[in-house]
Structure formats: C-alpha cells, structure tokens
Amino acid sequence: MNDKIKKGLFITLEGSEGVGKTSNLEFIKNLLSKQGIEFIVTREPGGTLLGEALRDILLGDQFKGMADDTELMLMFAARAEHIAQVIRPALSRGQWVLCDRFTDATYAYQGGGRQLDMSRIEGLEHWVQGELRPDLTLLLDAPVEVGRERAGKRSAPDRFEQERDAFFERVRNVYLSRAKAEPGRIKVIDASCDLARVQAQIAEVMGGYVEDN
Ligand code: TMP
Predict the structure, then answer these.
(1) pLDDT for the residue numbered 6
(2) For ligand 1, is residue 163 a contact (CB within 6 Å)?
(3) Which helix (H) or strand (E) holds 40?
(4) Cα separation, 138 vs 136, whole angstroms
(5) Which residues in 56-75 are b (16+ Cβ under 10 Å) and which e?
(6) Is the beta carbon of 174 within 6 A of some atom in ligand 1?
(7) What are the tens digits of pLDDT across the range 64-73?
(8) Centre of ligand 1 from the C-alpha of residue 198, in Å
(9) Cβ 100 under 6 angstroms from ligand 1
(10) Closest ligand 1 atom, CA of 58?
(11) DSSP letters along 86-109, please?
(12) pTM for this predicted structure
C-alpha cells in the first residue's frame, strides 16, 4: 500500500455478557471525538443491512436449534459483508473503525462456548479477512457471576444469553488465553470494578494510540 495513505486504526471491543460494553463504547466514542479523530462505530454480528438480518437470525429464537456449524458460518457470512461494505472502505478512507465485537468473539463463543474446532475458525478467519486484524482490542473482563448479575437486570435474554454459566466460563477462558497470547493487541480491562475505574483503565490504554494520531 502507498505509505502516504494513512490507514485508520481498527479497534474492537470484546467481553462476555454483562461486562458493560455499551456504556464503555460511549466513553470511547467521546474520547475519540474529543481528539478530533474521524471514526465510525459499528458492530458484529451486524453492521450492514444483510449483517443485521443475520444478527436477528443468530440472536433470535426463530432458529433456536440451529447447528453449531451453521452458527459459525453465519457469523463469518455477516463478517464478510461487513468487511467488504463497511470496515475496509472506512479504513482506507483513513477513518478509524470502532467495532463492538469481532473475530475474538467467534473464538470465544463458537470455539470456547460451543467447543468448535479452533482450526476451523482459523481457516475461516484467513479466508474471510485475509490479513485484516484489529490493531487494538479492549477486552472487558469480569467473573461470570458478576456479568450474569448485571445482564440479568436487562430485557429478555437472547439466544446466547440463555446459555449456562459453564458456557460463559469457557467464553471467558478463551478470551483471556487469547489476551495472554497477544498482549500487544489485546488489552485486558478489569470490568469488575466501578465504571469510573473501568473508564480510567480504558483512557490509559487509549492514550498511547490517540497521542500518536
Ligand atoms: P452483543 O454484541 O449485543 O453482546 O450480542 C452479540 C452476541 O453474539 C453475543 O452474545 C456474542 C455473540 N457472538 C458470537 O457468538 N460470535 C461472534 O463472532 C460475535 C461477533 C458475536
């Protein structure tokens, strides 16, 4: 790529249920806006018309008993569309992309939660993404019981939220082991403390990236 073209930064936000993704996403948006950074905010599964339709299928109860392989491939179908229509175009315009979940969620939920073969996920990742990987991933981490307690206060649970604690323990473990394997990209944020302290950790991590801008 021509190095005069400044590529935007690709930031993803991850975590299990009830770790406070929504409020912290708002905090990160404010942080980027204050720095005058041009960015888009998007999510997975979703982010395009087709992707949002797949999200409804994946999270709703209509196809509750879908096969695990179907679930995995629908996640990547949504992702392929998202990358082609939204993520790559934004990054090549020089915009930053702030994405609520990405492929680490597939490793955690389909690989960990559903116990699908990680090498299948790797294969799909290479096929669908080529070399595209997030530049920075913020992993909001809290014990499963803390997340369960917080998530329980919200509306009716979706197809994933209906899973048992053992599923979310596996999700959390995969997230944490990925963070251990890639400490340069995945930053673990302790999300079990109060919001102000969570946001202080996020601000500290983001500081390094924002200043370089
Ligand atoms: P949320 O982003 O609103 O929390 O909901 C999305 C749900 O989809 C969440 O339970 C995690 C799940 N998910 C996967 O299982 N695999 C994936 O690859 C992605 C992006 C999300």
Answers:
(1) 57
(2) no
(3) strand 39-43
(4) 7
(5) ebbeeeeeeeeeeeebbebb
(6) no
(7) 999 999 999 9
(8) 21
(9) yes
(10) 8
(11) IIHHHHHTT-EEEEE--HHHIIII
(12) 0.95
